[in-house]
Write a structure and sequence with these properties.
Radius of gyration: 15 Å
Number of domains: 1
Largest sheet: 6 strands, parallel
Order of helices and strands: EEEEEEEEEEEEEEEEEEH
Number of helices: 1
Structural class: mainly beta
Strand order of the largest sheet: 1-4-7-10-13-17
Mean pLDDT: 87
Oligomer: single chain
Helix content: under 10%
Low-confidence stretches: none
Amino acid sequence: MGFGYTDSADVNISGNTMNNNPQGITVFWWGITNLIDTIVTGNMIDSNTYGILIGTCNKWTIENNEITNNYIGIYIMESKGIEAHRNNIVGNTWGAYNAIGSGDPDEWELNAELNYWGSPTGPNRELPNGKWVGKGDKVSANVNFVPRLPHPYEHFQNRFK
């Protein structure tokens, strides 16, 4: 594992490189209270099975990261209030996968607006008729990716040159 923790709040994970691990960043909470108010920013998360794996956590912000070449870039399960913005999510089999909890699907939605998904056409996603559209990384149901960035987020890329 690149980085993992449980039982904390107000955590900032910033400026790291996590590559070639089963999980780049992994956070689970198995208790009654959830891990909350975590910020993941300015990281290179590359070539892991799971880039970012979040389970039963609330109020996360994932922004300005390079999330590349993972099996699943962002995987969340039973987590609410997760936002991912201005990330370059490229070369992953699944860019974002949301395994929602029970209840209203809208309250479990991953807000993934303003990310670049590896193609100007946006992420590859399944329409209600079963057809897949978009040429970027795949996204599951309950991932809101509109509006999306048509090009890589440039400000972040310059930091790693």
